[in-house]
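Supplementary notes for students who missed Thursday's class. We covered one full example, reproduced here. Read the sequence, then the structure, then the short commentary at the end.
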Amino acid sequence: MKCMSILLSTIFAIILLAIGASLISKIIDYMETQKIITSFENFADNINSVCLQETGNIRSINFVVGNKIQAVYVTDDKNIAISNVLKNVEKKNEMIGNNICLKLLSEKYPRCFQIKCEVRMIPFNYSESGESSIWIKVSRLLGKGDSFNLKTRIEKVEDNLVNISYTYQ
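Structure (token representation):
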């Protein structure tokens, strides 16, 4: 009887541990997604701010990216097929548009913000950053997940045109 009680207690403890680990994993996943979304919104706000400034104005900001991102791109057509965007990522083709969009893997539709001027940039996704990047490995070792900073440069190059370039950190 005592053996049965210990066995049931052990099974119950293992079940509670599994449920707890699952909940913690979902909370961390949610927090990482929110961090990416908040960073993207800040990125869009900064682009709009540069649009309203004089030609030649430059702003550099960090944008948090991670393995939850399918693509970040600009377009005039918010309904562009993601497969077309990914072809542009692969070929490193510039895209021009007045919407900046974030397509998360977990969401059916992209999150797009209308920008007050035309934006030109090469679209990017997480895998394009090179998952073997030393920065991603260091981030994982430090327990920060798969997100890292993308250093962006937003430059107003013409009266109604902003150019965005970026490097991985």
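Commentary. Strands lie at 58-65, 69-75, 95-104, 111-121, 148-158, 161-168. The mean pLDDT is 84. If anything here is unclear, bring it to office hours.
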